Amino acid sequence: QVQLVESGGGLVQAGDSLRLSCAASGRSFSSSAMGWFRQTPGKEREFVARIAWTGGRISYAESVKGRFTISRDNAKNTVYLQMNSLKPEDTAVYYCAADNNPYGSDSAGPYDYWGQGTQVTVSS
C-alpha cells in the first residue's frame, strides 16, 4: 500500500516556475514507478511524466518536453516535478501516481495509487 500527498501547486504567471512534490508513505515506494498526470474540467486525465523505480526510464509528454523535469529521491520517499517556462495551457490539477510495475506507463490505467491532486494555475 502507498499513500501519496502532493504539494507545491499555486498561482503563477506565464514564464514562471513551480516545483511539485509528492510525498509517499508505505513500504513499496522505492520499488514503484511514479508518474505525474494532470486534468482539467471535462477532460480525461493526461500523462505528464513518469520515472522508473531506479530513477531511469524517464518519459515526458510532448507538450512538456524541455520544460518539465521529473526526479525522485527514494531516501526521502518523494518524487518531484520541476516545471519551468509555464504556460496558461499548463493550468490543471496535477496528480502523482504510483505503479507497482517498477517501470511505469504513459497511461493512467495501470497506476495503482493516486494522490489527491494539487492545483496549478498559470495566468497570461
Compose a concise summary of this entry:
This protein has 124 residues and is mainly beta. Helix content is 0%, strand content 48%. The protein has strands at residues 3-7, 10-13, 18-25, 33-39, 46-51, 59-60, 68-73, 78-83, 92-99, 113-114, 118-123.
SSE layout and pairings?
Layout: E1 3-7, E2 10-13, E3 18-25, E4 33-39, E5 46-51, E6 59-60, E7 68-73, E8 78-83, E9 92-99, E10 113-114, E11 118-123
Parallel strand pairs: 2-11
Antiparallel strand pairs: 1-3, 3-8, 4-5, 4-9, 5-6, 7-8, 9-10, 9-11
Would you mind describing this structure in some detail?
This protein has 124 residues and is mainly beta. Helix content is 0%, strand content 48%. It is built from no helices and eleven strands. The chain has strands at residues 3-7, 10-13, 18-25, 33-39, 46-51, 59-60, 68-73, 78-83, 92-99, 113-114, 118-123. The strands form two sheets. Strands 2, 4, 5, 6, 9, 10 and 11 form a seven-stranded mixed β-sheet that branches. A four-stranded antiparallel β-sheet has the order 1-3-8-7, with no helix packed on it. Strand 7 (68-73) and strand 8 form a beta hairpin. The protein starts with a strand and ends with a strand. The model has no long low-confidence stretch (mean pLDDT 95).
